[in-house]
Design goal:
heterodimer; A: alpha/beta; Rossmann fold; globular; B: mainly alpha; MetI-like fold; NitT/TauT family transport system ATP-binding protein (chain A); ATP-binding (chain A); nucleotide-binding (chain A); P-loop_NTPase (chain A)
């Protein structure tokens, strides 16, 4: 793993050592994750990139404490994760916003649970509704929203209590290109402001490179870490211009090389009888 | 019964046009079309009954819509039906209230205790499948011919319908919602209040909606079997004198009451689950 420990005074928020995950499917044991070694440093933005269904979400579920690794050690700030991890904000791949609560009630929920005073709650909710572009939909129930809008409610819900670590599972998958670019920019400026560490799952290579400090390329199932690519692009980044720079193209070539190999491996796997 | 169903269903499917789907106007509003069709059914049905009565069949056996209407008018003009109607409604109300509160409580409790629920499951299924109306004579034996036996019958019927639905609802909660709240730092009580209860409320309301007409039937059948008051008693009394008109007028009255109560509960249900409409 290149230059994992180059930062001298950096602390690992999440630390995984030889983490494997096997679960029992209908046709016997399924190897979802195989010996993953990985650190997420304070304030770092890491993109997990890999083919669909390769176990990236499994890794997030383990960091959130919802499932336990079958073997290996997984710690959060040095403490083994053995229950729901309340230091994180987690936006799952599937909608987890409550259908019987309006947009603002949903965003308010984590603040209510954390007993934030009502006035502060209202201010925060208003700020984040503005941020995800849902002004005018405060009192709409999720059933009245499009898929992309529900995703943005989920994002606001994960951000609103400003956790020190964010787990985002393909948060912008359902958005159109323009909105996506805007939300990416908002996310970057916010995480930079908060100093939050981000673990960002995506299967979009360009999204991974434009946002992340490091891109972790994962293989087809059982997921292994194939390569870790440092993205040495300066911050703050101009997301619109970034893709046209030579440095960007160079990083992209390297990621593509690795990912392409994995896609072929995945196809061979599928072609097996 | 089937009338209630049609009414509720057409009412539920009607507001399907979303806020942003402006459709070009059609020749005939489907709602009006449906209403016209329903009026036509009533006219043909009652008209042919009225015409055949006295011409094809002896009104002693079938009575006629006009005679039944007159009987109903008579009851309400003299006010003689009110005490009976009130008694039936009281039996219905008390039985439904006790039965459904107990059903909700037991349903939620067993929903939280999966092992206990698994132990009790076959027995619950047996009792649920039992025709509880058939127990009415026993209830008269145990609780007398007055109020008590009817409340027990109505309560038992409502209990099982509400309990079964609440229980299913308490276990049907999407685990993703629960996980999501655990990460937000919610304790079990908060998860129960914010996720399990609102999620199961849909089922509770369904249970109530099914229970209402059944509870009306329970109250009336209880009275039919043995009593000295209530609409069921009126029906039984008329039957004893071969008064077809009286029997059918009583039945029509019960059906009307049931439809009105069902509409009330449907309105309540729609209010409680208004989030489904977005």
């Amino acid at each position: 793993m290149p230059s994992e420990n180059s930062g001298t005074a950096r602390n690992a928020v999440v630390s995984a050592q030889a983490v494997s995950m096997t679960y029992h499917g209908r046709r016997g044991p399924v190897n979802a994750l195989s010996r993953v070694d990985f650190n997420l440093w304070e304030g770092e933005f890491v993109a997990l990139l890999g083919p669909s269904g390769c176990g990236k979400s499994t890794l997030l579920n383990m960091v959130s404490g919802l499932i336990m690794p079958t073997s290996g050690s997984l710690t959060y700030r040095g403490t083994p994760i053995d229950g729901p991890n309340t230091s994180i904000g987690y936006m799952t791949q599937r909608d987890s916003i409550l259908p019987w609560r309006t947009v603002s009630e949903n965003i308010e929920l984590p603040l209510q649970i954390r007993r934030v005073p009502a006035r502060e709650r209202r201010e925060k909710v208003a700020t984040y509704i503005q941020m995800v572009g849902l002004r005018g939909f405060e009192n709409t129930y999720p059933a009245g929203l499009s898929g992309g809008m529900r995703k943005r409610v989920g994002l606001a819900q994960a951000l609103v209590y400003e956790p020190e670590t964010l787990l985002l599972d393909e948060p912008f998958g359902a958005l159109d290109a323009i909105l996506r670019l805007r939300m990416q920019a908002e996310l970057l400026s916010l995480t930079e402001k908060l100093g939050a560490a981000v673990l960002f799952v995506t299967h979009d290579m360009d999204e991974a490179i434009t946002l992340a400090d490091r891109v972790v390329v994962m293989s087809a199932r059982p997921a292994r870490i194939v390569d870790v690519i440092e993205v040495d692009l300066p911050r703050p980044r101009d997301l619109e211009q970034l893709q046209f720079t030579a440095e960007y193209q160079e990083v992209r070539r390297r990621v593509w090389h690795n990912l392409g190999r994995e896609i072929h491996a995945g196809e061979k796997e599928m072609a097996k009888p | 019964m089937s009338d209630t169903e049609t009414v509720s269903r057409s009412a539920v499917t009607a507001p399907d046009a979303g806020p942003d789907t402006a459709r070009p106007p059609r020749k005939l509003n489907p709602k009006i079309k449906i209403a016209l069709g329903q009026i036509a059914v009533v006219v043909v049905w009652l008209g042919s009954w009225q015409w055949m009565s006295g011409r094809v069949v002896d009104p002693f056996f079938t009575s006629s819509p006009s005679a039944i209407g007159q009987q109903l008018l008579e009851w309400f003009r003299t006010g003689s039906i009110w005490p009976h109607l009130l008694i039936t409604l009281q039996e219905f109300g008390a039985g439904l209230a006790i039965g459904s509160v107990a059903g909700v409580l037991v349903g939620f409790t067993l929903g939280r205790l999966p092992t206990t629920a698994a132990v009790l499951n076959p027995f619950v299924t047996v009792v649920y499948s039992m025709p509880k109306l058939a127990l009415a004579p026993l209830f008269v034996l145990w609780f007398g011919i007055g109020f008590g036996s009817k409340i027990v019958l109505v309560g038992l019927i409502s209990f099982f319908l509400v309990f079964y639905n609440t229980f299913t609802g308490a276990r049907d909660v999407d685990p993703l919602f629960i996980d999501s709240l655990r990460i937000m730092g919610a304790n079990r009580l908060t998860i129960y209040r914010r996720v399990v209860m609102p999620s199961a409320a849909v089922w509770v309301m369904t249970g109530l909606r099914i229970a209402v007409p059944q509870a009306v039937i329970g109250a009336v059948v209880g009275e039919l079997i043995s009593s000295n008051q209530g609409v069921g008693y009126i029906i039984a009394n008329a039957a004893a004198f071969f008064n077809t008109t009286g029997v059918l007028a009583g039945v029509a009255l019960v059906a009307c009451v049931s439809v009105v109560l069902s509409q009330l509960i449907i309105t309540l249900e729609r209010w409680a689950t208004r989030w489904k409409q977005g």
